[in-house]
């Protein structure tokens, strides 16, 4: 039986607009992010959704809660759906990271799967936990449609692994705030990408 997964990135935060790496830092939505989430809710209000899951970080959870209101569903959180742990890079801009952690950032840029961020994770760590979360959800919800609200890195990981992409190139997948992507799973190991990074609900 097929399982349809609606994947959404959380709304914008002040750290996003400031160009700061967030990772596991629990940064709330900005006013702009909340407005984006309301537009997402309007876009999805007529979709027959059976369950809503999100990362436990507040920017994803709040986005999911706003989207859940028209469906009268309770958001269930999963720590495995968190963004990659950027460790010592969190709260810093790209320029600050390259100045303070130049060598480690260079290694991570070339081989993120196997390079552990200082005090954080490797991309392989996130791939493993996201795969574990998706397998559990697909097995638990055969024949149903789920909304998952997570983070840019998580969505790149889920889409990339589903399509067999070399995950060292995962940054080539663009994921905008509150963008919508749809995957249809026929069993755990067979997925079809139906839609990717749609933003017409926030960019009419």
UniProtKB/TrEMBL annotation:
SMART domains: PGAM. Its EC number is 3.1.3.73. GO terms for molecular function: alpha-ribazole phosphatase activity; ATP binding. The active site is at residues 10, 83. PROSITE patterns: PG_MUTASE. Substrate binds at residues 9-16, 59. One of its GO terms (biological process) is fructose 2,6-bisphosphate metabolic process. CDD domains: HP_PGM_like (cd07067). InterPro entries: 6Pfruct_kin (IPR003094), His_Pase_superF_clade-1 (IPR013078), His_PPase_superfam (IPR029033), PG/BPGM_mutase_AS (IPR001345), PGM_Phosphatase (IPR050275), Ribazole_CobC (IPR017578). This is Alpha-ribazole phosphatase.
């Amino acid at each position: 039986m097929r399982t349809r997964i609606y994947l959404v990135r959380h709304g914008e935060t002040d750290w996003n607009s400031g160009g700061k790496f967030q990772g596991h830092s629990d940064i709330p939505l900005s006013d702009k992010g909340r407005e984006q989430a309301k537009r997402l809710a309007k876009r999805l209000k007529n979709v027959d959704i059976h369950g809503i899951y999100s990362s436990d970080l507040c920017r994803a959870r709040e986005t999911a809660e706003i989207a859940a209101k028209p469906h009268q569903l309770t958001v269930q959180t999963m720590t495995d759906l968190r963004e990659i742990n950027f460790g010592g890079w969190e709260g810093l801009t790209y320029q600050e990271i390259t100045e303070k952690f130049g060598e480690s950032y260079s290694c991570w840029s070339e081989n993120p799967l196997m390079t552990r961020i200082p005090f954080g994770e490797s991309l392989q760590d996130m791939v493993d936990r996201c795969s574990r979360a998706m397998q559990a959800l697909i097995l638990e919800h055969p024949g149903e449609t789920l909304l998952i609200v997570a983070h840019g890195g998580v969505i790149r990981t889920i889409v990339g692994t589903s399509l067999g992409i070399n995950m060292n190139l995962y940054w080539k997948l663009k994921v905008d705030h509150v963008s919508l992507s749809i995957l249809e799973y026929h069993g755990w190991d067979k997925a079809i990408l139906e839609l990717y990074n749609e933003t017409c609900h926030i960019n009419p």
